[in-house]
Design goal:
The protein has helices at 77-88, 135-147, 172-178; strands at 7-8, 13-18, 23-26, 31-38, 41-46, 49-53, 106-113, 119-125, 152-159. By secondary structure, it is an alpha+beta fold. It has two domains: 7-61, SH3 type barrels (Roll); 77-178, 2-Layer Sandwich (GMP Synthetase, Chain A, domain 3). A hairpin with a 2-residue loop joins strand 4 and strand 5. 27% of the residues are buried.
């Protein structure tokens, strides 16, 4: 089913069951197949289950964690906003190998000045299905990746369901990639 060799975990690590969102511990020595490794997190197949392993646990898979994003010297507000959007594009639905921006899940992203010269970021996003157990995990991933931008003081990510998501919100590239372009 997967084109990669199985990987044996070098240590126990936390994972999240997809799509339920239940947290579990995968024991050291467990063989996993990496189904998706996008945006610094990993979707793995273990004993008939899909699980998401966070990027901080890349070493358990024998991989290197993703480095923090860097702003240019003397960044402008536009540079910060551009990097925030780039960071959101590193967040992936664990079942669909397309980033959340191209999926059309990000409805709004607003940056405002914080008193210390940094930025506050407010994001409104949705899910492809309202009952998805991965919603809080995706929102936390977005928050963590935005807050990894050096000039961001704090990010607030709100899950909203109005308007409901539809494939019409996807980028043309995402629709082509999923075969939903018609």
């Amino acid at each position: 089913m997967y084109d990669r060799e199985p990987v044996t975990l070098s240590r126990a690590c936390e994972a999240v069951m997809i799509p339920a969102g239940t947290h579990v511990i995968i024991p050291e020595g467990t063989e996993v197949n990496v189904a998706q490794s996008l945006g610094g997190s990993f979707t793995v197949y273990v004993d008939g289950n899909l699980l998401r392993i966070a990027g901080k646990d890349a070493d358990a898979l024998g991989l290197e964690p993703v480095e923090s994003p860097r702003l240019p010297d003397n960044p402008t507000d536009a540079d910060v906003e551009k990097l925030v959007w780039e960071q959101m594009k590193t967040c992936y639905d664990p079942e669909i190998p397309i980033n959340i921006v191209d999926l059309g899940l990000v409805y709004e992203c607003k940056l405002s000045d914080a008193p210390d010269g940094k930025k506050h970021v407010d994001v409104k996003m949705t899910l492809t299905a309202p009952g998805c157990g991965m919603g809080n995990i995706l929102a936390a991933d977005v928050k963590q990746k935005i807050e990894s931008v050096s000039l961001v003081k704090e990010a607030h990510v709100e899950l909203v369901f109005d308007p409901p998501w539809s494939r019409d919100m996807m980028s043309d590239e995402a629709r082509l990639q999923t075969g939903m372009y018609y």
